[in-house]
Each structure stands twice: as structure tokens, then as C-alpha cells.
């Protein structure tokens, strides 16, 4: 005989059955009512932290198939297969719910139940009816939960007024708003099938016998006749001259080639002139460096081997080095996207004569000293001058590409927090201390580098995007947890005080203001203002579709904060 449970009763699964591969059946119905039966896989905080464990009509299985939606059978409106031993450790509670799809209230429902079946034999049942509810449109029927390593079952019977979306929000999920797609005429909605042959059980799993033995499989819907493709419209033929010869096409000048003489080389009846040598290049364009070899070079004509970096200013003789603009390194600058129309590529010109030489070829790549603490050499290389203020520099291990002077490199431990991070995920922040007197150049994988100067304010930077920073800055490692984030968590470093942080990005980043609807991919976010609040957001779409699946973009970071907060995102996912 099955064990009859009342609302609020609890029991250990081991007291009910020795099996762990269980069948859970739910029966609920009412005149003119349609129900959605779902299962929520919750964490220890009773929140849906991973939407892949929300089992419903659009997502019938969990990743490891420990939870499976089986459909209507054996007299049950909906049924599930639950394999307790395969449920991951982060899922500590399974909540089975029923919600109305359409108009109606739970008080209109007839007698129903949730039952547990092991090996084909019913071992426990919690029965209910509509008299236990009033205006509710959804109800939590029963929960499997793990306590002290032992699975137990509790009869809940708690109702909600808002339906399935209210249940989802109660468990910490978020309903993604979208326009429902137009369904073809005659497409059936979600409803239990009629009676028929019993569904064949999975190996080693025995659902209970019941009236489903007389059910029949639903007749397949006849496919719609495909529409005949439209014939392509032929283009009108070009008119031909009366002689029948094709009309010649106008000649298009070759703008990419060398200059071509387009006039006769000799007057009519005269002797042909010898070909003229090409004009020599202008000496001032390729002159060797002046007395100050580190002065900025005059602007050069565009060359194919030196493309202009988007988002950076073109070099000019009147402008100072880029390192002097540290106040807003991510702001769009003149000469970036859309500043000038793209120019046609020109053939490279090799200097000859007095303008030739190694100095002319390499002059534009000379080091740019400014006497300041940090100096950008190019979009991917930054130089730190040690000994100016006596402060050391902390940098990511392996990021030094060149140094000059008497510089000492030593290991910098990440502290207790860093060791905890490293032991948990292998993402420990490995730092080195650079001290002494000299210049150290930092880069990594040709990533773009951006000096961010702090003047008593604070910023949070993803640990993967920190290249180097002044040791005078206070810094701490913070952890943002959430299932669905690669590695289980996102580790950031918060910097406060006075100094400079060198942030690296893949490509040119974009800076956006934080609004109530600002979401970012955890793998693409680079930095954000320290005053902004970060929340792991999990979006679940409740609209029915014919092709259930996972988009890969359901877990994001939501940013909230007062006006003035910002977020920095790179066009790349780590």
C-alpha cells in the first residue's frame, strides 16, 4: 500500500523505497482548464541559479538527463523520471508545480495528486482538490530535497496567484519578454494525449500500470503542401546597336596601379621621345630623424603595412604622445570609426637616393619617452618608468617584453583570497613585482592596452583583463558566483586610491552608461564602475516552440546603479 501524505508531511526516500530511479506522476484536471506541470531544480538557497534545470514543455531534459519529462501516461496528466544519484551537487531541491494555462483558478480544479513510483509500484501519494485553494493560479505540489546527504520528500500544497511566471520569479528566474511567433493553422497546443498503448519504459525504469494501457498514439498531423517557388524575373536585355555588334563598355581607369602616360610620346611625323624617368621622391617625407630621434614623426601617407587603428588618433607633429590622455582612455577619439571615408590602397613606395636608409625605415617606430610614469608606445605596448616616484609596479606574470636599466623582478603572492580563488577554479591571479630604476615594457598577445588613471575613485576590472598597475593602489579580488558562468564564477579586481591601472582588451572596447536594462555577457565584460551593482541574470522563455533547445545566451550579468555609472565591454568573448 502506498504511504498517504498530508500537506506538510515529510518522509525520507530511503524509508519509502530502496530505489533511486523514480517515477513521479501528477494528476490535475478541471472543467475547461488546461495545466502546465513543471519541475524546478533549485540550489541550497532555493533559487533557480541554472535555468537548464527548469524542466517544462520547452526543455524536457536536464543536461545529464537526471530529470526527464515523460508526458501523460498511466492516468497521470504529466510524469517525470527522476534519477537521484545523477543529480549534480549544486541542485539540492526539486520542486514539482502545476500552473493554469489560460483562464481559471485552482479552486475550479477537481481531485488530484502527486505520487512516487519505484519499480512499477506506487510508494507514496499526496492527494489534494480545488477546495484547498481560492484564487491561486499555480501551486507547489511537492518537493524532493537533500538534507545531510539524504533525499527526502515533502508535501507542500502552496499556491500562487500569478501563474507560472510568478513561480519563476519566486525562484529567482526571469521571464524573457518576446513577441509570440505566428503558429501555423491547426497546430495543437500542449495537452495530454488520448488513451492508447502504454509508453515503453526506459531500461531499468518501470512506470506504474494504469489506464494508460488503453491510450492510443496521436495520429500524426498531415504535412502541409509546400508552396511552389516563384520563378525568377529575367532582367531586361541591354539594347544592341543596329550593326549587331556588342556595344563596347567604357574603360575604367586603374586607380591602384602606377601612373600611366596618356598622351602621344612623339609629335606626328617626328622621332619618338625616350621614356622619362619617374620623378624622385620628396626628400622631406623620408628624411632621417632630427637631432631628437624620439620626437614624433610628421604624418606619412597611408601605407598598406601600417593600418590606422580604429578608435585612436592619427599621429601628428602638433599633438603630444598618447600617454598624456589617461583621464578617459575608453572615450571615442577623432579619427576613429566613421571619421574618414576609406581610401583606396596605394602601392608601397620604397625610398631611394639620399632619403633611403635604416633610419628612414624604422624612424616611425622609435620609442616615445615623456618622462611620465606610464607611456603608450603603440596601441598594444605600454612603458612604465620606475624610480620616478619610488613606487613599484605589479604586473601579470609573463607580461614583460623588454626592460632597460637596473630592474628587479620578484614573485608577488595573491594572498589568502587569491589562493582560495586558485584552488577553486585554477584562475589564481599570478603577479610579479617590478622595482628598481629603469623602464619596463608590458604587452600580452598584441591585445589593446588602456591606461586608466584613478584620482581617489574606484573601478572594478575583470581579472582576465588586468595587465599591470601601480602598487600604491589598493586592490582586492571579488567573486561573482552563478551557475552558467564559465568556471562557476567571475573573478574581478577592485582598485581604489591614486594611481594607474593598465587594462587590456581584445579589440576596441565600448563604454555604455548603466541603465535598469543593462545586461552583458560574462565573458565579454571588461570593467565597470565600482558603485554599480552586479546581478547574475537567468532568462527563461515560457512561450511554446516546436524546437526546444538552449541558446547559449541565457546567463548574463545585469548592472544596476545611479546615473553616472558605466560598463566597458570588448568585442570578444574570453
From TrEMBL:
Low complexity: compositionally biased ranges: 212-228, 283-294, 308-357
Superkingdom classification of source: Bacteria
Biased composition range(s): Pro residues: 200-211, 229-240, 272-282, 295-307
A Pfam family this chain is assigned to: AIM24
Coiled coil spans: none
Chain residue ranges for the region called Disordered: 176-357
Domain TerD: 1-171
Record Gene3D superfamilies: Mitochondrial biogenesis AIM24 (3.60.160.10), sav2460 like domains (2.60.60.30)
Protein's name according to its UniProt entry: TerD domain-containing protein
Organism of provenance: Streptomyces axinellae
